[in-house]
Each structure stands twice: as structure tokens, then as C-alpha cells.
Design goal:
Blueprint: H1 12-15, E1 24-27, E2 30-33, H2 39-59, E3 62-66, E4 71-74, E5 77-79, E6 83-87, E7 100-101, E8 106-110, H3 116-120, H4 122-130, E9 134-139, E10 144-150, E11 155-162, E12 166-168, E13 176-178, H5 179-182
Parallel strand pairs: 4-7, 8-9
Antiparallel strand pairs: 1-2, 3-6, 4-5, 6-8, 9-10, 10-11, 12-13
């Protein structure tokens, strides 16, 4: 069980010494091993990632990265979202060349049985705290995408899209995708 305040808090420096052949996230100072996602999760990530990447590249808006890509939110919070977008306005977050140093404009988490609880609670709170503008929760089982937009210290539900619907993004003006294209 994930404890919100572990007795010993690990730091980004500790995180950098984890084995390279394993995936970890650092959530509130606790090292969490993240298992490889299942094949459907991977299929959805590839489809949605390709659509996001194409849209962003065609318009020269910034960069899209798939997991694993470290997002260093603080010295005790390092996440690896399934997909993320960093706008040209926030390109300074990429200057170190090794990872994203700060909050991306858009974070996408594709829910898995082993990580859905963290994605909906702890990571959601971290993304709010650090200023992620938009957060998508992609639910392969329900075949929905919940689009959340940062309000005054909370994420507000912009919309919940289901099969047969076309989702849009408040951050990526003009981006739309039919959910049947990703599920």
C-alpha cells in the first residue's frame, strides 16, 4: 500500500541511482516500482501519441514525449507519464537535455490496474500542485477519456468522452480525435 508520508523520503539524487532496467517513480519521497503496462495500454499509447505528435509537429507547438520520460516536479517527486506535451513557451523545462524539469503543459495517464489509484489521486494532486495545465485520464476498460483543466488550485472536469465521441483539448486548440481511433 502506498503511504502518503514514508518514514524515509528519497530524493531525486537517490532516484538517479535506481537500476536502469527497472521503471520507478518518486512520489512524495517514496520510490515506487512501476510494472510494464499491458499490450492494450501500449496500443492506446502509440495511437494517441502518434496523433498528438503529428498535431504538435505540424503546427510547431512544442514537443511530445512518451514514457519512459522523467518529469522532475521537485526533489521528491519524479513521474513518468504515459504521454506529455511541453509547449514552446515552456521549452526551458527541456534545457537540461536529460528530462523535463517542471510541469508539462499536458500530461496523459493511461490507467492500468496497478497504477489507476495513484493516477487518480496522488499523481493528480502532484500535477495540480506543480501547475500542469491539462491532465487526461484514459480508461481502457471504460473506454473513456476524462479531460481535466487546471483551475484555482484544483483540476476541473472539462469533459468526459466516451466511445463514438470526438474529444478536444483546451490547451491544444484545434486538436480533436475520435475515441474510436484510439480504443
Amino acid at each position: 500500500m502506498l503511504s502518503p508520508n514514508p518514514a524515509v523520503k528519497f530524493t531525486y539524487e537517490d532516484y538517479q541511482h535506481t537500476p536502469e532496467d527497472k521503471r520507478y517513480e518518486l512520489l512524495d519521497g517514496e520510490l515506487i516500482m512501476v510494472p510494464a503496462p499491458n499490450l492494450e495500454h501500449q496500443r492506446i499509447g502509440i495511437r494517441l501519441g502518434a496523433l498528438l505528435h503529428g498535431f504538435v509537429q505540424e503546427r510547431g507547438l512544442g514537443e511530445v514525449f512518451p514514457a519512459p520520460c522523467d518529469v522532475v516536479l521537485s526533489n521528491t517527486d519524479v513521474v513518468q507519464p504515459d504521454l506529455l506535451f511541453v509547449s514552446n513557451e515552456r521549452a526551458h523545462l527541456l534545457l537540461g537535455g536529460d528530462n523535463v524539469r517542471g510541469a508539462p503543459d499536458l500530461v496523459v495517464e493511461i490507467l492500468s490496474p496497478s497504477t489507476a489509484g495513484q493516477d487518480r489521486t496522488l499523481k493528480r494532486a502532484l500535477y495540480v500542485k506543480h501547475g500542469v495545465k491539462e491532465y487526461w485520464l484514459v480508461d481502457p476498460d471504460a473506454r473513456t477519456v476524462t479531460v481535466l483543466r487546471l483551475g484555482e488550485g484544483v483540476f476541473e472536469v472539462e469533459d468526459i468522452y466516451g466511445e463514438g465521441q470526438t474529444m478536444t483539448s483546451p490547451t491544444l486548440t484545434g486538436f480533436s480525435v475520435g475515441l474510436n481511433e484510439i480504443f
